[in-house]
Amino acid sequence: MLTGIHYIYMLFILIVLLTMSRKRDTLIPCILGIFCMGLYASQDIIFSIGAIFNAFVVATKELIGIILIISIIVALSKALEEIKATQLMVTPFIKVIKNRTSAFFSVGIVMLILAWFFWPSPATALVGAIFLPIAIRAGLPAIGVAMAINLFGHGFALSTDFVIQGAPTITAAAAGVEVSDIIKDGMILYWTMAIVSIGIAYFMLDRDIKNGKLKIEDSMEISKYETHSKEAKISAALVPLGFIADVVCMFLFHLKGGDATALIGGTAVLLLIIITVINYKKEALEKITTYIQDGFGFGIEIFSPIIPIAAFFYLGQLGPFTEALGGSFLLEGSQGILSDIGIALSTSIPMNKGMVCSIESTVGAITGLDGSGFSGISLAGSLAKIFAQAVNVKASVLSALGQITAIWVGGGTIVPWGLIPAAAICRVSPIELAKRNFIPVMIGIIVTTVVAIFIV
């Protein structure tokens, strides 16, 4: 059952989307949305004013890990750039990556493989730090690098999750089917979504570059004959060796998600200390402070406008809503605002194969609006089980469809507050990145839904 707070949330989602469509910033609508939800729930203006701050705190808690890893990687990058070690690190890849096409798909495939084994968050930091300067030199703009990281990692890899199998395990448990069935029966859908979305995204990117609509950043000039200090050469060797060791440790000790990100972040900090000491000796104590300040300054600059936006959309989840506003303001049995909306939608429309697939796809996308991706896949699985019994179709195919749309939307391809890591590491606007991904991903979802209707 939907209440007034659900309708207020939906109203402000529409206002935010309308604001985005007019290419305007959405901070004020999101902040007012938090205030209005708090006021409706509590009938207390003092509480609702405080709810704005509480929601900011909740959003910051959710994002702090990403803020830290990005800030640390940027600090390390600045140190490497200053001593010209970055030039040495990227030189071996120049022979392989010769143009923007090879750059886009090289970045994407490496991201895909790493994300399958270690999840996208730690992979984003690794791939972005190493491949960004090479790709720019090959003629691929930074926004193109971010798109490749997003679409291959946060879209394709995370929505399939073939190796770690976290996503299909959650979906399968809710749908009452085997994990292997989700993977096997959904295989056509996974590849349809990936091929259509990534293919269209690159076509549109390449077209805009040729038409001059996208500016290609100045490439980093790398000379084979430029002399580098012995310290710079040591630093250039230490960084890839350190991160390769991380990858080995992730594989051996089955580290993923937050644990893998923590390992990369800690390694980056240690590398920063070692490189600073090697290159600056007695000045190292002061120099590392400058790098840390620069890194965190960049992190705060990128994330400061995102936190108010995320604060509003996180309220769609049960946990953050309860923490910011209190659980008593939702009806007993509520699974969170977004989940409640999805369930209400699914029960108000007549059932047939086409409608069932459309609802499953739509509900998955709606639950992805919180920027998580994973928050809605349990609902997707539960609905698939109900729909499969109602119209005699495969629950595994429906579950895979809901999993795809929830994660492609919310995992970090078209929701700006969900794709921050790639945007930050490539130093582009999350809003612009979301706009670039929007049409390809939407077309991919539509085509994948149509395919599902025929194979369900």
Structural summary, described in words:
- With 456 residues, the protein is an all-alpha fold.
- The protein has a domain at 64-163 and 227-304.
- Helices cover 77% and strands 0% of the residues.
- It is built from 21 helices and no strands.
- Helix 5 (100-118) runs parallel beside helix 7 (142-160).
- The radius of gyration is 23 Å and the shape is globular.
- The mean pLDDT is 86.
Question: Which structural traits does this protein have?
Answer:
21 helices, mainly alpha, 77% helix, 456 residues
How would you concisely characterize the structure shown here?
This protein is mainly α and 456 residues long. It contains 21 helices and no strands.
How confident is the prediction overall: mean pLDDT?
86
Order of helices and strands: HHHHHHHHHHHHHHHHHHHHH
**How far is the first residue's CA from the last residue's CA?**
29 Å
Would you report the number of β strands?
A: 0
Dominant shape? globular
Q: State the secondary-structure class.
A: mainly alpha
How many separate helices? 21
Oligomeric state of the chains?
single chain
Helix content: over 70%
Largest sheet: none
What's the gyration radius in Å?
23 Å
The percentage of residues in β strands lies in: under 5%
List segments where confidence is low: pLDDT < 50 over at least 5 consecutive residues. none
How do the helices and strands line up, and which of them pair or pack?
Layout: H1 4-21, H2 27-42, H3 45-82, H4 85-90, H5 100-118, H6 120-137, H7 142-160, H8 166-175, H9 179-185, H10 187-210, H11 230-252, H12 257-280, H13 284-303, H14 306-314, H15 318-325, H16 337-346, H17 353-367, H18 377-391, H19 395-413, H20 420-426, H21 430-455
Helix pairs in contact: 1-2, 2-3, 2-14, 3-6, 3-12, 3-13, 3-14, 3-15, 3-20, 5-6, 5-7, 6-7, 6-12, 6-20, 7-10, 7-19, 7-20, 7-21, 8-9, 8-18, 8-19, 9-19, 10-21, 11-12, 12-13, 16-17, 17-18, 17-19, 17-21, 18-19, 19-21
Keywords: Membrane, Transmembrane, Transmembrane helix
Transmembrane segments: 6-22, 34-57, 63-80, 101-119, 125-149, 156-176, 188-205, 234-254, 260-280, 292-315, 406-426, 438-455
Protein name: Transporter
